UniProtKB/TrEMBL annotation:
It comes from Paenibacillus montaniterrae. It holds the Pfam family DUF4179. The keyword Zinc does not apply. This is DUF4179 domain-containing protein. The lineage of its organism: Bacteria, Bacillati, Bacillota, Bacilli, Bacillales. The chain crosses the membrane at residues 47-67.
Amino acid sequence: MNQIDQERYVKLLNSIAVPPLETAILEGRRKVRAEQRAQRIRSVKRGFIAASVVVVLFASLLVGTRWSPALASTLSQIPFVSELVELVAGNKGMQDIVEHQYYEVIDKTITANNLSLTLKGAIADEYGLVLYYRVSSSESLEGINVSELNVTHNGQEIEGGISSSFFVREGEKSVDDQVTINVMKPFDYSSKQFMLEMKFTDEHQTVITIPFELKQPIAPTKRYPLQEEVLVSGQRIWLEELSISPLRAQLTLKIDEQNSWQLLQIDSAELIDEHGEQWGTINNGMVGWGTLRDGEAGLYFQSNYFRNPEQLTLRLGQFQALPKGEDYIEIDFAQQKVLYQPEQIDLQLTVLPKSVVYTATENVQQFNRQLFSTGIDAAGKEVFSSGGSYTSSDTEAKHNIWYNLEGVVNPVRFAISSYPHMLPDTVELEIPLTQ
């Protein structure tokens, strides 16, 4: 790429008028996902979520920032350049990944029954893998979904969380999306042989498999032991380690089991470097691993791996919590009754023969997560959700969660996993990164 072409490309990128920060885009995605979940939520192997993603015009994803000539030059040499610009928009960590040529181009296509699956590229680190793909056809894809998705490593299923989204607009002939794989323990890359398999709901129930090999070296994770004890409204938390890899920064923490309140979620979390640059939470729905109920968990942040700040400021706030002993709901499905509901839970609960409906008319915007999922029946047997739906408006948010109740002994107790009842305190900690 000569200097004239490079300058022209940078000028083109910087000339696009854009909204601030992706706020409208993220809100649009949330609304479309909610609408699709209201129509259909299905359980798919190992956590693959058949949610929806709004397809947004290329220019609308860009954020008003100055694009470096090095980044422009790198982008111009990679296939699917417009999708890559969408990838890096508003995310300096992703811009760094592309600029440092850590994004690995695969560009491999397999076609079957008039459906083509293209594996465009990948980003891998010790804690996960993101695959960027395109599904296309000479005819409209409308009505076609992905029913199964699997990624294997060296012939074995990956032990971790896999998530993806697939949504087709009316008349659309191609869909671009990504598969995100997260693992709790460092991934073993002694073998880099992988395979992506997707099954579609077309008339042929088409299955397409793409084997691929990662060839680039995997960047090592940077680890910073913390061993800091903090108090949140008298509740003890240990901040154990901050690890930074190309795809995410991860904060590992432990909860004191002697706490009088049951911590549920942390709704506000950010890392800020000495230049005031914020590393926000992950925007693709993957917020961490484990639960605060388990006593040990990890929080994910966007990562600026290829930058080298001297220190970070960690800020945590909006701790969801309920008093221990008042952090569950008990239900008798046979009698269709709620036997116990904490006074802090300001919801209308309705028990149906095979589902529970709960509706919020206060704090509607905060009530977008499930109140509970798995329960324990009177015989100690786990009771699993078989699906559900979610609808919302300006004045009401409603969840309907279905259960397989065959052989269940009533009553069933559900531990509350999320509810917007907040502790007032916040946490702020300076983390030096000099090694």
